[in-house]
Design goal:
single chain, alpha+beta, Endonuclease I-creI, 7 strands
Length: about 150
């Protein structure tokens, strides 16, 4: 699960589907945007300390988590530049939003397309902005301005 909000102080609830189930942690990231759009994150060797508590009799269908504070306090200080993408499904709309963000980064910051794409994967957060008008979905790509200051 590549979820940028699984940080210190997070409570992660996992379903246990088999008796004697095991647990492992791997592929830790120092930075990643929500959506990890091109498989690029800032991979890092990270030490973790975890505590386990089995909630006997409790069942959940999939992972859930509680975070200890605002989701992106490090990025919120200088606002965001946001592109939107429209499509017939979430994936297509996400692709458009990221393409438009890449165009912005290339035009504004003179990055190569490859550099811009990698930056999108480690710093841009994808948010579902609209699904109510299916098949017309809208996804927003949030670039924190704080990374340029």
């Amino acid at each position: 699960m590549d979820i940028r909000h699984l940080i210190r102080g997070t409570k992660l609830y996992l379903p246990v589907w088999v008796e004697g189930a095991l647990f492992s942690i791997g592929d830790t990231h120092a930075a990643q945007g929500d959506g990890e759009v091109c498989g690029t994150a800032v991979e890092a060797s990270i030490e973790t300390t975890v505590r386990f508590k089995l909630h006997k009799g409790k069942t959940i269908q999939g992972p859930r988590y509680e975070i200890p504070g605002p989701p992106t306090p490090e990025a919120d200080s200088n606002g965001y530049y946001v592109t939107t993408g429209h499509g017939e499904d979430i994936y297509q709309a996400s692709q458009h939003a990221i393409r438009y963000m890449i165009e912005h980064l290339v035009d504004t910051y003179k990055m190569s397309e490859q550099e811009a794409y990698m930056l999108c994967s480690v710093a841009v957060d994808l948010r579902i902005s609209e699904i109510v008008n299916t098949p017309n979905t809208l996804v927003s790509a949030f670039l924190p301005q704080a990374i340029f200051y």
